[in-house]
Amino acid sequence: MTGNPSDAAPEKGDEEKAASEKKNSGKTASQKSAQTAPLTAARVAEYLRRHPDFLARNPALLEKIKVPGRDQGDGVVDLQRFMVERLRSELADLTATRDELLVNVRNNMATQNRTHEAIISLLAARSFEHFVETVTTDLAIVLDLDVVALAVEQSDVEGQSQPPAGVRCLQTGTVNEVLGPTQNILLRNDIDGDPLIFGAGAGLVRSDALIRLDISSEAPPALLALGSRQSDQFDPGQGTELLRFLAQVIEHTFRAWLSLPE
């Protein structure tokens, strides 16, 4: 005996359809419409109106989208002008950074070349007196400075030999007083030159570099002072490698001329 077709078990497709209809039955009409409606320009515009900070939170999109021209009538935001102005600002910053780096590189190269020339002139001295004259006179020209002073501490002990001509005398303890007990190089800007160090040339000095010279265990403390009329020629933020190298050459040359131990 055959059964009534209406009493047969529902097919699998009918079950899935029924489950889908049951799942969608609890959703609102607007939700259903949002899921099924195609993405249109009107919907995008409506979203942006409801989220006016969207592009501010996603600035990278401005580089991808095609924006309207400048002459679009009232009510149109000129995004193209915004992007152009931002790119101009970024380009100006990059250009300024590049120019600053180029200036620094050129200045460093010029300083390095002048330092090498100064060292060659020191090594070319034909006598100790010529060496001292080169330090106190020629270095100012070669290094493009206004005053270079070489000073040695002189105690009050009787019979102690006087420093050679061109070398200034300092009271005992002056080097540590100026530099401190551990510091070897001091760079200063926007200053008035110290007459005790620079003598008659102090009035020209507006920035300086003071370098401790460790000539020998048998020699008194000494100081190499470089002065410039430019207030920013030296400043505490500058590198001191070349200055230290120059000082080491002077120390070695002193020992060689005077046959002093280290």
Distance between the first and last residues' Cα: 124 Å
Helix content: 40-55%
Continuous helix count = 9
Radius of gyration: 40 Å
Uncertain spans: 1-10
Strand content: 5-15%
Class from secondary-structure proportions: alpha+beta
The helix-strand sequence is HHHHHHEEHEHEEH
Shape: rod-shaped
User: How many β-strand stretches?
Assistant: 5
Q: Report mean pLDDT, rounded to a whole number.
A: 82
Q: The biggest beta sheet, please?
A: 5 strands, mixed
User: What is the topology, as strand order, of the major beta sheet?
Assistant: 2-1-5-4-3
List its salient traits.
about 10% strand; single chain; about 45% helix; five-stranded mixed beta sheet; rod-shaped; alpha+beta; about 260 residues
Describe this structure in words.
The structure is a single chain. With 262 residues, the chain is of the alpha+beta class. It is built from nine helices and five strands. It has helices at 12-24, 29-36, 41-50, 54-57, 79-123, 128-142, 174-179, 195-198, 241-258; strands at residues 147-154, 167-171, 185-188, 207-213, 222-228. The protein has a five-stranded mixed sheet. The model is unreliable at 1-10 (pLDDT under 50).
Short précis:
By secondary structure, this protein is α+β, with helices and mostly antiparallel strands. It has helices spanning 12-24, 29-36, 41-50, 54-57, 79-123, 128-142, 174-179, 195-198, 241-258, and strands spanning 147-154, 167-171, 185-188, 207-213, 222-228.
